[in-house]
Design brief:
Low-confidence stretches: none
Structural class: alpha+beta
Strand order of the largest sheet: 9-14-13-12-10-11
Number of helices: 7
Oligomer: single chain
Radius of gyration: 20 Å
CATH topology of the largest domain: Structural Genomics Hypothetical 15.5 Kd Protein In mrcA-pckA Intergenic Region, Chain A
Number of strands: 14
CATH superfamily of the largest domain: RNA-binding S4 domain
Distance between the termini: 37 Å
Helix content: 25-40%
CATH architecture of the largest domain: Roll
Mean pLDDT: 92
CATH class of the largest domain: Alpha Beta
Order of helices and strands: HHEHEEEHEEHEEEHHEEEEE
Length: 261
């Protein structure tokens, strides 16, 4: 049986891993497949790395659509012959409808509105704004049922929560993986991320200072922070950059190879 303290030791997300490890113990003990709630990408990756060392456990994940960041993890015994649902039970779409023409809101604002309305973090999957119309989200069926037809507040704007089948949502388009090359004066985060995500350097520096940019899932607020090979830069709504290679040019600049996904 798993030793939860040992499996989570040294992890920056040890507390968030506890229910996942408990679910893994239950799956091994009962031989029944178990789906977790929605996990952040950081916690899911950490769980996959740590639980992936157990040959008796098979892992899978699903977030409601291809390329989703927040996903539910499927845990089951490798030898189990029972059929397993490819999709987590009880996943729904949720519309957060309102008029944001005069008070634009970001994904974090909509997520906070769901939390204020009583949602747990593990009931909320990916969420994406839809201009001045509000936002849509992947949520648990339980949460969709609770919020259906009720109202909430996003910043100064009243929104109405409306449950939808996932198939009726305007899902984010899949991001094809792209190979990028850029030459920069330095390996600074704001310079490299600006080139990789296609934003102005000033805009990228502002996003970094606001805490919207992460390196290996940890928030970084210093635009001058240098990047190294192997590090990954995440920006919500725009995907991820992975630094594949860095080499110095004859003129003392830096040729940087990036993979954007």
């Amino acid at each position: 049986m798993l030793l939860r303290e040992t499996m989570a030791a040294g992890s920056p997300w040890a507390l968030a891993l506890e229910p996942v490890l408990a679910a893994a113990e239950a799956a091994l003990r009962t031989w029944q497949p178990i789906w977790t709630g929605f996990l952040s990408a950081a916690v899911r990756e950490e769980a996959e790395i740590r639980l992936g060392t157990l040959s008796e456990l098979t892992l899978g994940s699903e977030g409601g659509y291809p390329g989703s960041e927040r996903r539910q993890l499927l845990l089951r015994r490798s030898e189990a012959l029972l059929p397993v649902q490819d999709q987590p039970p009880g996943v729904m779409g949720l519309e957060l409808a309102g008029n944001f023409l005069f008070d634009p809101a970001a994904a974090a604002d909509f997520r906070q509105a769901l939390i204020n309305a009583g949602a747990r973090d593990d009931q909320i999957g990916d969420l994406w704004p839809r201009g001045d119309r509000g936002a849509q989200a992947i949520v648990s069926a339980e949460l969709a049922q609770i919020l259906e037809g009720t109202e909430g507040l996003v910043r100064t704007v009243a929104v109405r929560f409306e449950a939808r089948p996932v198939a009726e949502l305007a899902l984010p388009a899949p991001r094809p993986q792209r190979d990028l090359h850029t030459v920069e004066a330095s390996q600074r985060l704001d310079a490299v991320a600006s080139a990789g995500f296609g934003l102005s350097r000033n805009r990228m520096a502002s996003l970094i200072r606001e805490g919207a940019v992460r390196i290996d899932w940890k928030v970084v607020t210093s635009p001058s922070r240098d990047l190294a090979v192997g590090e990954r830069v995440q920006l919500e709504g725009r995907g991820e950059l992975r630094v594949e290679g860095v080499s110095e040019t004859k003129r003392g600049r830096w040729r940087i190879h990036l993979i954007r996904s």
